[in-house]
Amino acid sequence: IVEKETKIRESLKMMGVHTAALLCSFYGLQAIVFGVLSFIFSIFLTCFSPGDSAVLPASSTILVFVFFFLWCMAFVSFAFAFHTLFNKAMTGGIVAALVMLAQYVIYKVITITPGATSGVALGFLCLLPNCALTLGIELIGNFESLHIGATFGNLFYSDNNASLAMVLGMLMLDIVLWTMLGWYLENVFPKEFGVQQPPHFFLQKSYWKEEPRPRGSLIEPDGLFARLSRGLLGDTTDTLPGRAENDGSVEPVADSLQASIEIRGLRKTFSTPAGQKVAVSSLNMSMYEGQILALLGHNGAGKTTTIHMLTGMLAPSSGDATILGRSIRTEMDAIRKTVGVCP
To answer: Which of 341, 284, 293 is nearest to 316 (CA)?
Structure first.
């Protein structure tokens, strides 16, 4: 959430870093950190102790390590899905702590009578990482009380309608399910920065496979936008598309130039205590290959907001733009492969 709040995530995406790379780096780092911690923890639990014997002397060190490592990664996956609901780190942190505590309470309330909860119900409970953790610790504790410990030999042994094999399997399922849910929610949930995808984005062929697009895909057949692209107009409702050529305020564009960026009716508003603040008002313009274009204006004129919309940091309130024929509303991942930004 801190990365969202400080715009680090979207800044990396603006520079062309793919979502898959961000996920791999995030999960990779957590796997290393929690892998080391789980290994040290399992060694001390099964081999060493400040007292006369280890806490879990009869249990397998490898099995205890696998259990705690899978729980850690399931916890990370749950956090990844959970973070999509918040834009402020402090709020997210407080609610997350309460949610994790609530999982433990839910488990204890449902399983208050030993053996009364069915295996199916326990399996569903294990979709919550802390429920799986609590159930797994109870099973390991029961095996230790029998002086046989948790080992691969009794991995599938059922105790009160549950087994360690089921817990480990559900933890692996948690990692997959919560990661997929987080990936989906990150795309479709409203957020302060970045472009929001439609709920059915994963069903669109264009999301999975890039298709070549013709330049100027926003230019209508009647030539209105083609004539508008000859200059910068402030209002798309103007009925004189040739005004920019006629009033002499805009240099004519040679027919040999090809527009690489087409902006049509681009608008951005922000909600403020005083009401709606219009940062960019129905901007129409084109940028051409081989040309340098500068946006000039006073503070608050909307220059940075326009750049942010073209690079996907902010979603437009209305209007659209194409960069090399691709829409900033639906094909930002493809656009970012060819666009660089120096803030």
So the answer is: 284
